Amino acid sequence: xxxxxxxxxxxxxxxxxxxxxxxxxxxxxxxxxxxxxxxxxxxxxxxxxxxxxxxxxxxxxxxxxxxxxxxxxxxxxxxxxxxxxxxxxxxxxxxxxxxxxxxxxxxxxxxxxxxxxxxxxxxxxxxxxxxxxxxxxxx
Length: 139
What we know:
By secondary structure, this protein is mainly alpha-helical. It has 7 helices and 2 strands; from the N terminus they run αααααβαβα. The protein has a two-stranded parallel ribbon. α6 (82-87) links the parallel β1 and β2 (91-96).
């Protein structure tokens, strides 16, 4: 309980700081100015060592679709490690020109990411089913 109260106090103190809200140009800046300070992490290298999703990607055993827009203001296209996606059998990266950070809307303001995700799941299921038919039941 004491740890939780102390953490909430640090979050409030850090979030109310003018330093936090001014001149945040990158996700790295936000991570350093906010998360590193709140959790007592000394630098960005230490932060990414424990928070980089790529560290855990090798353990994903089911097909996983990652959508990314090249106009994302938070995770710029330069931060996407395309080489890792080539190495990971279960990970598929789909990049699009627009969609911002979580938008993925078309010209009529309809979310197309849901349909893309469903298409991916159905295609993955059909692939697994075809392999089971051809090779027998998979592990």
